[in-house]
Amino acid sequence: MGRTATILHADLDAFYASVEQLLNPSLRGKPIAVGGGVVLAASYEAKAYGVRGGMPGRRARELCPQLIFVGGNFQEYQRLGDAAIAILGDYTPLVERISIDEAFADVAGCTHLFGSPADIAATIRHRVRTELGLRISVGVARTKHLAKIASQVAKPDGMVLVDPKTELEFLHDLPVELMWGVGPVTKAKLTERGILTIGQLANTPGHSIERLLGTAVGEKLSALAWNRDPREIRTQHRARSAGAQSALGRKPAVESVFKPALLHLADRVASRLRAKSLAGNTVTVRVRFADMRAVTRSTTLDAPISATMMLAEIAEELVRVALADHPQEQTITLLAISVSQLRKQPDIQLDLPLGLPDEKRRPGAKKGIARWTADRAIDTIRDRFGRDAVGYAATALDGPRAVPDGFRELAEKEL
């Protein structure tokens, strides 16, 4: 861990909503939300009314009657997110992307070329605004955790440099929910104990925090509260999983709803895996019900897969199991698919047709080879003519808006 503030955390402001306002100037200055049944993202104008990501659409409209919902343009989100992260790469090779719209960068080795860390942060912010038309907030600090907190304090459209000499004074006055790893559940537990600020957490005996939150989480948060964070920038690390999710609103838990939605998600996930020559052994689905409670089901296969239809069929089976285990649930609001235990796509070897129960799940079976060939043909067409040039009939027949295109990457690192 360095002694000077050279780590940047750059985070695009209200990214999805800002992109929608960029693409459609008539939405600028207005409260908008990306999504429908569930808010995926909200503009700052909507946030002023209390609208937040993950909120049911009905509640969002109650808070902000003039709220405008937009369906989302995820190809543009990916393109603009990539472009913003690429600007960081113009100043240092030490860039660690952690999501579609945020990344860390260590500029310790390039200040002689581009100026101080604060100068570099200011230049990045200017370029993102002028070249992409988006706002980005940057935190500059000695550790990754503190840089991320500083970027949150800087929002919207600002830059905060934390002086190493006064970093604890800066950190300890902030609300505890700004800490990396403190979500709503953890915040509620801390609030019950009267712990509202990071300073209060830092001065609470470690054994008390560990009893409250568990040993691992307690030790981690106690260390971060004192800005003890030895993690370095990791420019390359192996993707642990890849996934996508779609907010459906409030839809009946029937095949005509979940089957096309799962095919849509499987197409997104599998095509990304194939683009990176990856395949995975474990398939997991998540189903969220009307009361926002979610359940997951997973299965681990003998052979890794990356075929769209194979992934979709396995996901369907898992969703059926989840619904059968909860027969009282008649409404679903979200579906998600993820593939884990990723590895480089092996060479596909033909399997003998032995009539085994799991044969349809084996990439080397006759049906698996046919599906792999079809996927490759679709990938080739999309690479040349764009993703919308060809799709799968089960989703295309229902129209372009039948399945919401609300997804986000669940991978540890962007694929």
Automatic annotation (TrEMBL):
Names of the cofactor(s): Mg(2+)
Pfam families on file: IMS, IMS_C
GO MF annotation terms: damaged DNA binding; DNA-directed DNA polymerase activity; magnesium ion binding
Main location: cytoplasm
Cofactor note: Binds 2 magnesium ions per subunit.
Key words of the record: Cytoplasm, DNA damage, DNA repair, DNA replication, DNA-binding, DNA-directed DNA polymerase, Magnesium, Metal-binding, Mutator protein, Nucleotidyltransferase, Transferase
One annotated Gene Ontology cellular component of this protein: cytosol
Catalytic activity: DNA(n) + a 2'-deoxyribonucleoside 5'-triphosphate = DNA(n+1) + diphosphate
CDD domains membership: PolY_Pol_IV_kappa
Residues covered by the UmuC domain: 7-183
BP terms from Gene Ontology: DNA repair; DNA-templated DNA replication; error-prone translesion synthesis; SOS response
Cell compartment(s), UniProt: Cytoplasm
EC numbers: 2.7.7.7
Record: residues binding Mg(2+): D11, D101
List of catalytic residues: E102
Site positions for Substrate discrimination: Y16
Family: Belongs to the DNA polymerase type-Y family.
Cross-referenced HAMAP family: DNApol_IV
Biological function: Poorly processive, error-prone DNA polymerase involved in untargeted mutagenesis. Copies undamaged DNA at stalled replication forks, which arise in vivo from mismatched or misaligned primer ends. These misaligned primers can be extended by PolIV. Exhibits no 3'-5' exonuclease (proofreading) activity. May be involved in translesional synthesis, in conjunction with the beta clamp from PolIII.
Subunit organization: Monomer.
Protein name, UniProt field: DNA polymerase IV
Organism: Mesorhizobium tianshanense
Encoding gene, per UniProt annotation: dinB
